[in-house]
Amino acid sequence: MAAPSFLKIDPAIERWNRMREDAYKHFRFTPRTTRVAMYGFVLFPGAIYYLASQTHLTWSWAGKQKGEALAQS
């Protein structure tokens, strides 16, 4: 037989853990979650891509000596 457990189980903590572990089962796309998904998956990466494409080839670190400008002309 198993040894008796000296740990008391709190039903509230057990319910909270079960709710947290099963949260994906009860997920629904509401207007708020759709907005958050659009920000996270479309707008934020789009903004990073736009900034990266605007600054691409603006600076050149290859073969520069001390005192030379980094900006390409």
Description:
Belongs to the complex I NDUFB4 subunit family. InterPro entries: NADH_UbQ_OxRdtase_NDUFB4_su. It is a single-pass membrane protein. It is found in: Mitochondrion inner membrane. The chain is mainly alpha-helical and 73 residues long. The chain contains two helices and no strands. The chain has helices spanning 11-21, 31-55. The protein is elongated.
Task: Produce the secondary structure layout.
Blueprint: H1 11-21, H2 31-55
Question: Keywords for this structure?
Answer:
73 residues, mainly alpha, mitochondrion inner membrane, electron transport, NADH dehydrogenase [ubiquinone] 1 beta subcomplex subunit 4, NADH_UbQ_OxRdtase_NDUFB4_su, mitochondrion
Concise account of the structure shown:
It contains two helices and no strands. The protein has 73 residues and is mostly helical. The chain is elongated, with a radius of gyration of 27 Å.
